[in-house]
Amino acid sequence: MSETITAGSPSFLASADAPIETVAPGVTRQILVHDASMMMVRVVFEAGGIGTPHFHPHIQSSFVARGSFDVTISGETRRLAAGDSFIVPTNAVHGVVALEDAELIDVFSPRRDEFLV
């Protein structure tokens, strides 16, 4: 028999318990499950929303959950749609442009502690 997710569980997180924050015009972020070694983040974009080019020491893998994006990693751009994925090596400059209302599920290793402040 399954149980309902409750707040404060170290292994489970109900979406309703994870705040959503605006990080740029047309872009929101929701920090999902994490521990010191990894972090999962839901990022929702309105059409035209931009994930400004940036870099970080974390390895990032991303899954296009909905919509489509132009994704640029180290100067190479590809158009990705729902069901596609990409990986960003440590310190590679990368960014995205949402071509329609869209959503990414990002996983970082290790955890992005600066997201938790």
Summarize the structure.
With 117 residues, the protein is an all-beta fold. The chain has strands spanning 20-24, 27-35, 38-45, 50-54, 59-66, 68-73, 76-81, 85-88, 94-98, 102-109. The chain has one domain (20-111): Jelly Rolls, CATH 2.60.120.10.
Q: Mind explaining what this structure looks like?
A:
The chain has no helices and 10 strands. The chain is an all-beta fold and 117 residues long. It has one domain: Jelly Rolls (Sandwich), CATH 2.60.120.10. Strand 2 and strand 3 form a beta hairpin. The termini are far apart. The model has no long low-confidence stretch (mean pLDDT 94).
For the structure shown, list the relevant keywords.
four-stranded antiparallel β-sheet; 117 residues; 0% helix; mainly beta
When the domains are counted, the total is: 1
Number of strands: 10
As a whole number of angstroms, the C-alpha radius of gyration is 15 Å
Largest sheet: 6 strands, antiparallel
Strand percentage: over 45%
The arrangement of helices and strands along the chain is: EEEEEEEEEE
Give me the CATH superfamily.
Jelly Rolls
CATH topology: Jelly Rolls
